[in-house]
UniProtKB/TrEMBL annotation:
<keyword id="KW-0472">Membrane</keyword>
<feature type="transmembrane region" description="Helical">
    <location>
        <begin position="107"/>
        <end position="125"/>
    </location>
</feature>
<dbReference type="InterPro" id="IPR018495">
    <property type="entry name" value="Succ_DH_cyt_bsu_CS"/>
</dbReference>
<keyword id="KW-0349">Heme</keyword>
<comment type="subunit">
    <text>Part of an enzyme complex containing four subunits: a flavoprotein, an iron-sulfur protein, plus two membrane-anchoring proteins, SdhC and SdhD. The complex can form homotrimers.</text>
</comment>
<dbReference type="InterPro" id="IPR014314">
    <property type="entry name" value="Succ_DH_cytb556"/>
</dbReference>
<keyword id="KW-0479">Metal-binding</keyword>
<feature type="transmembrane region" description="Helical">
    <location>
        <begin position="25"/>
        <end position="49"/>
    </location>
</feature>
<dbReference type="InterPro" id="IPR000701">
    <property type="entry name" value="SuccDH_FuR_B_TM-su"/>
</dbReference>
<dbReference type="InterPro" id="IPR034804">
    <property type="entry name" value="SQR/QFR_C/D"/>
</dbReference>
<feature type="transmembrane region" description="Helical">
    <location>
        <begin position="55"/>
        <end position="79"/>
    </location>
</feature>
<keyword id="KW-0408">Iron</keyword>
<comment type="similarity">
    <text>Belongs to the cytochrome b560 family.</text>
</comment>
<protein>
    <recommendedName>
        <fullName>Succinate dehydrogenase cytochrome b556 subunit</fullName>
    </recommendedName>
</protein>
<comment type="function">
    <text>Membrane-anchoring subunit of succinate dehydrogenase (SDH).</text>
</comment>
<keyword id="KW-0812">Transmembrane</keyword>
<dbReference type="Pfam" id="PF01127">
    <property type="entry name" value="Sdh_cyt"/>
</dbReference>
Length: 131
C-alpha cells in the first residue's frame, strides 16, 4: 500500500523561494496584466477617435489617483515583461545558463524594470504629459 501521508507532488510550501521562481511567476503575471491593460489603451484610442469630449472623460479617469496607480503598474508590467523577454532571448541564443549568470540576469530584469518605469514616469510628469 502506498504512503498517502506525504504530498503527491511538490508545491510552493516545499520549494525554497529563489529569484528564478519569482521571475518566472512575474513574467506570467505581467503577461496577464498587459493583456488586460491593453483594454485601457484600446479605450483611450476609441476615446481619441470619438472626439474631444470622449477623450476628456478618458483623460479624467486615467488622470485620477487610482488611474495613475493603474497606469504606473501597467507601465512597470510592460517594462518587466520587456526586460525579462530580452533575457529569455539571450538564453534562447545559448548564453547565460550558468547559475550565477541566471541569478544575475534575473535580478537585472527586476531592477531594470523599476528603473525604466521610474525614468518613464519622471519624463511624463516633468513634461506635463499627465496634466
Amino acid at each position: 500500500m502506498a504512503d498517502t501521508s506525504r504530498p503527491l507532488s511538490p508545491h510552493l510550501q516545499i520549494y525554497k523561494w529563489q529569484v528564478q521562481m519569482l521571475t518566472s511567476i512575474l513574467h506570467r503575471a505581467t503577461g496577464i496584466v498587459l493583456a488586460i491593460g491593453s483594454l485601457i489603451v484600446l479605450w483611450g484610442l476609441l476615446a481619441l477617435a470619438g472626439g474631444s469630449e470622449a477623450f476628456a472623460q478618458f483623460a479624467s479617469c486615467v488622470g485620477s489617483p487610482l488611474g495613475m496607480v493603474v497606469m504606473f503598474g501597467w507601465t512597470w508590467a510592460f517594462a518587466y515583461h520587456l526586460c525579462n523577454g530580452i533575457r529569455h532571448l539571450v538564453q534562447d541564443a545559448g548564453a547565460g545558463y550558468a547559475i550565477a549568470q541566471f541569478v544575475r540576469s534575473s535580478w537585472l530584469s527586476i531592477i531594470g524594470s523599476f528603473v525604466i518605469t521610474l525614468l518613464f514616469w519622471a519624463f511624463v510628469l516633468t513634461s506635463g504629459g499627465a496634466a
